[in-house]
């Protein structure tokens, strides 16, 4: 397997009064290109912390993070920012889109910030909006889109830079059941089509069958990582 994201023995401590709180405790996790991994576990178990470390948004207290073959923990801040911009797509629960920009401009802005030429960015943006099913609404602003459509813009934007790793934190928390299934299905599709290593934090095990594997966190540790087929999904009636 072509490992796109590799976390080795990651420990992350936050300051906590006079002592420290261990949010991640010797966590190791490898995710391959084209692999879709669900990360589940109770609130406070360290899921978001793990994504932040994987995104090179925060440095772990110890351990090694490798993104697309490059060791992030070796880099100084500028190098880390560049690696994140070039190789990591991040999707949070609330699509933090800019209110004044159309869907296509949200994507173009992302590439502009990367210093990419506009003509290529326009082609890429149009192609991605088609992929996420928003070809018809490229000219609409966030308030003219539904919650599900806004999350689709968010996904397309995260893919603009051709990331190797896609990190998704509770993407369906603000959506109803049908929209949630569509969004997870879309994440499955783009993981396959663009061969990204996708890690999705989810509280809902119902969509786990759309993923390849599921890792369970508890108290800052990964207690299990297994093929998703071996995890029973919630019975639907
Ligand atoms: P989850 O996403 O699984 O709910 P988090 O990664 O957000 O878990 O949190 C793991 C632990 O780290 C929790 O005890 C939380 O209170 C703590 N924590 C998270 N972020 C911070 C922070 N910025 N500063 C201090 N403690 C934090
Ligand atoms: Mg969280």
Task: Give a topology summary.
Elements: E1 3-16, E2 19-32, E3 36-40, H1 47-54, E4 62-67, E5 70-71, H2 77-87, E6 88-91, H3 103-113, H4 118-131, H5 147-159, E7 165-169, H6 177-194, E8 197-201, E9 213-218, E10 221-227
Helix pairs in contact: 3-4, 3-5, 4-5, 5-6
Bound molecules: adenosine-5'-diphosphate (ADP) and magnesium ion (MG).
| Bound chemical compounds | adenosine-5'-diphosphate, magnesium ion
For the record, the CATH class of the domain at 3-95 and 163-230 is Alpha Beta
Count of helical regions? 6
Taking pLDDT < 50 over at least 5 consecutive residues as the criterion, the unreliable ranges are: none
| Biggest sheet statistics | 6 strands, mixed
Description:
This protein has about 240 residues and is of the alpha/beta class. It has a domain at about 5-95 and about 165-230: P-loop containing nucleotide triphosphate hydrolases (Rossmann fold, 3-Layer(aba) Sandwich). About 30% of the residues lie in helices and about 30% in strands. The chain has helices at about 45-55, 75-85, 105-115, 120-130, 145-160, 175-195, and strands at about 5-15, 20-30, 35-40, 60-65, 70, 90, 165-170, 195-200, 215-220, 220-225. It has a six-stranded mixed sheet with strand order 6-7-8-3-9-10. A hairpin with a 2-residue loop joins β4 (about 60-65) and β5 (about 70). α4 (about 120-130) packs across α5 and α5 packs parallel to α6. The protein is globular and about 50 Å long. The mean pLDDT is about 95. Magnesium ion binds near residues 47 and 48.
